[in-house]
Amino acid sequence: MSGLAGGFRRLGALRLSTLAAAGATATLLAASPPTRRLVMSAAGAAGRAAQFLATGSVRYTAGAYEAAARRWAADGSEAAVAAAALDGKHYVVSGANAGLGLEVARGLAAHGGVVHLLCRSEQRGRAAVEELVVDGAAAAAAGGDVDRGAAEADLRRRVLLHVVDISSLASIDTFAAGYLADGTPLHGLVNNAGVMLDTVIPSADGIESVFATNTLGTFALTERLLPAAVATPGPSVVVVVSSAGMLTADLEVEGVATAATVRDSPPASPGGASRPDSGGTLVAGARQDGSAAYAVTKRQQLALVEAWAATAPPGVAFHACHPADQWEAMRARLGSGGFWFDRAPAAKHLWLGGTGYDEGAPAALVAELRALVDAKGQGV
């Protein structure tokens, strides 16, 4: 009897929740179109966040990584990475003074590559170079293959620092112009530099820094260096370190230049006073949702890879990946234009996430960014 009563209670609760949902739906349908869009957008974002959390609890864990590592050992990809010979090949890595960028540079240098570290801070960049040289020489000497002094001298010739602010179009242009003028080949470009900020900070170009670094900087650096990759004999690869966080974001294309422009103060109302609600205008020093801004730029990065892959010159491949993927193995084994996680193709959208976009949207984003770069006097 108690079980039956419990069943009725559950049915009663279900009926009440159904009535509440019906009431909420009716209220929503009766609301104004802007209100409906706002509520539905918030509901969609909450649904994506919940689905992303559920996905992440399975895929982005230590257990999932350990399972992937066992797969790499079995399928030979780990051995392929370990045996890679990069002698004489040139690689550019942005954001290379710490974290993933530093570790990518370390691996490339260990396998004989000439590594160009792009760092915003000269002091931190020099410290990174010193770490790579000293640690690399010690590892080489420990392997018994070479004298430590000779290994250190070799690494100092191959690990090169360039002070570049990826959020500054002029800084990117200065570096790229010199790189191209020297005729240096480019076998790989790793767009790793990125920021996530909870405060609106303008770049040197007056652009919000998350967008300026993650989206505009990635675009400008790749476009400026692409002639070097095309001129390099043999295959070249461009990797954009995106993030699975982009799964929660729509692709923003139209008006991105205006939307990312930072003002010193809110725009004035017709009467001359500053409006409390700036209508979405970015104001220097204001708070912003850093995670959301980051996710949007990571979605834009994936769209850039899709656009580049669709028009890729022969011999140049483009990849986007979740942080910490082994990108050299990707080049050897996978096609161009995808999003990769744990050395395997990964979904670009959550199921029922509603983040899909038209086939022409990536090219439209490229056009928007090219117009913004041109407007700033740094044409690509």
Question: Could you give a short description of this structure?
Answer:
The protein has helices at 2-30, 33-59, 62-75, 77-82, 99-110, 122-142, 148-158, 169-181, 209-231, 256-260, 290-310, 327-333, 361-375; strands at 90-94, 114-119, 159-163, 188-191, 236-241, 262-263, 282-283, 316-321, 339-341, 344-345. It is of the alpha/beta class. The chain has a domain at 164-375: NAD(P)-binding Rossmann-like Domain (Rossmann fold), CATH 3.40.50.720.
Name its key features.
disordered N terminus; two-stranded parallel ribbon; globular; alpha/beta; Rossmann fold; 10 strands; 380 residues; eight-stranded mixed β-sheet
Describe the 3D structure:
The protein has 380 residues and is an alpha/beta fold. The protein has a domain at 164-375: Rossmann fold, CATH 3.40.50.720. The protein is 54% helix and 11% strand. It is built from 13 helices and 10 strands. The strands form 2 sheets. An 8-stranded mixed sheet has the order 3-2-1-4-5-8-9-10, sandwiched between helices. Strand 8 (316-321), helix 12 and strand 9 form a beta-alpha-beta unit. Helix 6 runs antiparallel to helix 7 (148-158), helix 8 (169-181) packs parallel to helix 9 (209-231) and helix 9 runs parallel beside helix 11 (290-310). The longest helix has 29 residues, at 2-30. It is globular and about 65 Å long. The N and C termini lie far apart (76 Å).
